[in-house]
Amino acid sequence: MSTVLLVIHLLIAVGLVGSVLIQRSEGGGLGIGGGGGGGLMTGRSSANLLTRTTSVLGALFFATSLSLAWLSAGTGTPTSILDQGQPAPVQSEPAPPAEPSVPLAR
């Protein structure tokens, strides 16, 4: 279930980024549907459509984010990362002291 929701969440995120990039900003941006020649949509109607699309995708992104957080909170028990490794080997006897090295006299 969470895998399907995660894929949907990623598709919504890509769509949201795309709809934001397509919108016309003050500097022009990557905007579409500006002026001109009898297109299917005028500048105002494309702006309204893109604004609504961005709003809907933003709401869906928020909903899927909350759903994924809710699903992940209910799984598993909290564990410490320190408990996951293998315990260090225990030495039963201390190592004998090393012989001190004495320089040879000439």
Describe the structure.
With 106 residues, this protein is mainly alpha-helical. Helices cover 49% and strands 0% of the residues. It has 2 helices and no strands. The longest helix has 31 residues, at 43-73. The model has no long low-confidence stretch (mean pLDDT 77).
Shape: elongated
Radius of gyration, Cα only, in angstroms? 32 Å
Give the beta-strand count: 0
Q: Describe the biggest sheet?
A: none
Class by SSE composition: mainly alpha
Low-confidence stretches: none
Average pLDDT, rounded to a whole number, is 77
Number of helical stretches of at least 4 residues: 2
Q: What string, H for helix and E for strand, traces the elements in order?
A: HH
Beta-strand share of residues: under 5%
Estimate percent helicity: 40-55%
Give me the secondary-structure topology:
Elements: H1 2-22, H2 43-73
Helix pairs in contact: 1-2
What key attributes describe this structure?
elongated, 106 residues, mainly alpha
At a glance:
49% of the residues lie in helices and 0% in strands. By secondary structure, it is mostly helical. It is elongated.
